[in-house]
Amino acid sequence: MSQSSRLRSLLAMGASAAVLAAVATPVLAQTAAQQTTVIEELVVTAQKKEEALQDVPIAVSAFSQDTLEAQKIDGGPNLQLAIPNVSFAKSNFTNSFNFQIRGIGARAVGAAADQGVGVHLNNAPQQSGNLFEAEFYDMERVEVLRGPQGTLYGRNATGGVVNLITAKPTDTFEAMARAEVGNYGTQKVRGMVNLPIFGDKLAVRAAGAYLKRDGYMTNTFTGNKVDDRDLYSTRISVMFNPTEKLRTNFMWERFHEDDSRSRTGKQLCTKDNGPATVGGVATGAARIFLTQGCLPGSLYSNNAYGTVNTSGTLTGELGNIFGFTSGDANVGDTTDKDLNKFESLFDPIYQSKSDVYQFTLNYDLTESLTITAMTSYSENSVYSKQDYNRNVSVVPFNTTPFTPGGFFTDPQVGRTNLFTTLDISSNNAEQFSQEFRLSSNFDGPLNFNIGGIHFDYESVTDYYVIGNSLTLSALALNATTPGNGGNPNCNPVTLPNSCIGIDTNATPDGSGHNYYDNRTPYRLKSDALFGELYWQANEKLKFTLGLRQTRDRKEIDNYKTVLLAPGTGLVLDPITPLAKVSFSELTGRFGFDYKPELSMTDDTLVYAFYSKGYKGGGINPGVPANAVGIPQTFEPEFVNAIEVGTKNTMLGGSLLLNATGFYYDYQGYQISKIVNRTSVNENVNAKVYGLELESIWSPVYNLRLNANIGYLHTEIGKGVKSIDTMDRTQGNPAYTVVKVGPSLPNASVGANCVLSSAGVATLLAISQGGILPFACGGPAVFQGFLQSRGVPAATAGFLANNTGLYNYGAGYSIEGTTADLSGNELPSSPELTASIGAQYRWDMAGGWSGTLRGDYYRQTSQYARVYNTDYDRIKAWDNANLTLKIEKSEWGLEIDAYVKNLMNDVPIIDAYTSDDSSGLFTNIITQEPRLYGVSITKKW
Fold this sequence. Notes:
Largest sheet: 22 strands, antiparallel, barrel
Oligomer: single chain
Mean pLDDT: 90
Radius of gyration: 30 Å
Shape: elongated
Distance between the termini: 37 Å
Strand content: over 45%
Structural class: mainly beta
């Protein structure tokens, strides 16, 4: 038996080969004079049983609490720095993020969209949680499994699983207190106490963490630091083991945050002034209707620090039509080139809280059979409010009857003379899951692990966009709509077909149509049976067969978005008031693992598996009441995955070298784009393959080196096409983008349409460019509009049908033309990710020791969207961390100093594109700046 094999009996915690170096301590041989370089292996429960990491035939990385602290992995976003082929970025909306493994994550948007990477807390699935908000504390370990999962885990996942395993009560007293200070006024406090009450029968463990710091970002308008943190989390765990056969654990965890966390980062825009000429004809005053707000330029060019041309937005277009603005309210304005500076009339508001209750019971039916019951219940609520356009306009409102002296008092925005828009994103959710498992431990060749789960989730999501120009537009439309008697403050109750309701409350309640409210009450019920059968063919060869039958049922109260539509209150779709989808799928995996005896290694594991993964389809969020052509649902994802790997212990246990290769045939990968003020999810096919190498080496006593590298190739399938809202014409000068006008029955005001440049030039030449926005409804609607404005029928017919506005070539329509995505990369899928680390420990007099550690991470460029244009490209970026620990184990005393992001780079790591009616601006996501601090820890 090899030396590393003998060590497996000593294992207590988990870590991947790539991160073991952070906590591995050289093992002393039996003779005191000898010091060895043998690396201790650690235990994980990736297959729902305790196994040495090198014996697990799965690509898995795991991190103990010590590992997390040593590598400064404070929370979910930092995990990407230590795992190959992993990326992480928060998304544009509240309490949402994209944890992506091997190119697979959460690119669909909406309440009914599932995560590609499942997040579990103590093996229980979490549909909504705090992975990107909360910091890790008092963890037993964090496990990250790469590849499709489902035959052992409660919720199926196509990309992988993140399993957060909290520390459990034990029968030994222990306690810890930690205080930390750092730059940006950082104050952190963590603590833990474990109290055995009745031997190994009853124990209680309490832990907590508190973080308060100043913001990284500066609001240059208010002068305040924003994106600060003020949060805490507490956890109580109770172990009660009345008999040797019966073991139970109860946990309650609370999280609370109230600060100015910025949901999105800086806003970038390559300003689109609109064409000066079309077809050789000057656009003149009509130019304001021919801008889309922002152009698809590189996010790294100087031009990207422009501001949105407000004429290319819904609110700006209406302002121009009704006269309270005259063109671009941001004319001449630019933004600061510091990515940590933005401009906003007010500071962001962010509030989040959650409670999680879990109860786990294990009972040994016999010496070889154990039943496990896991019950989990949680409640979550999140509220955030911030400036929708991250700059303050420079041109005040015109003086009009609605804006005397250029000022307007909006019920929600307040009194100002500037174009102002804000958004509110909130979510209230609760979930319940009940899981049962039965596992065997027979002496014979056959064993199994089978189970079932019921999962119930309900949430209500509201996403508001509120603007004073929207309320002004509602008043103007009321005043000019026949039937309202010219009264801008008409009564929508008595005039429901012509009067737009205006919410007069400071806090919107959903009753008004003077703002955008995408409300989604969502319900999910999921049931599954799953399990694995193991056949130990001989001492070295084992086969595994896993199956899962899943049934997902999703439903949404199908509220339409009724911005600037007559009436009041939320409106259910009259045809489909309750949108439903259901899916029932059989998935599984089959493979083997083999332990050959090789002369070049001490231990070797070789494994190969085929697996089929599934992620449910869903229901697109609510669409504008008059929108057409937007699908109500999107299809599920399926992946056929092949994975081959090997795990090796070499050089007498001083070198671990693991390798994994994988190939995915992906069907129905879910992507999202914003169309007509709502998220529209589409499905595309793709191929994914890659390689992962992980290693740790101890060449001499007290020195640890680790390295990992991930290679990833993603490729969208042939024949996949999609309209790029950023470039609807695909650069073809024969077509011109035009803003959609108000009150069209089949188009959303503020969106963009595409008309023939020759037809646009004809209207411009006869000084009729001002009516172009109303041509976006198509020829029949355009002709009807003209006639309703007193244009003779013959003239209206000529303008609509004989000017060539709708002369489209092959592949073009009023929506534009599709971009060919064949062969493009999937978003957030860098070709290479790599990390290296080095750690040296030295002993000092008096029982003191010191440990110095450095970590470096780099990833190559990637794309933010499937279109893979220059606008979509995210450049390569890197990160370096340094830590120094001085400790005296006898006293339980540790003093730590650290620097994160040593080079103080603030790279863009992801980007979000808004929709036509918002002007197609880009919200970017960046890394944290350089952080440094010191801490002192006392353990008992």
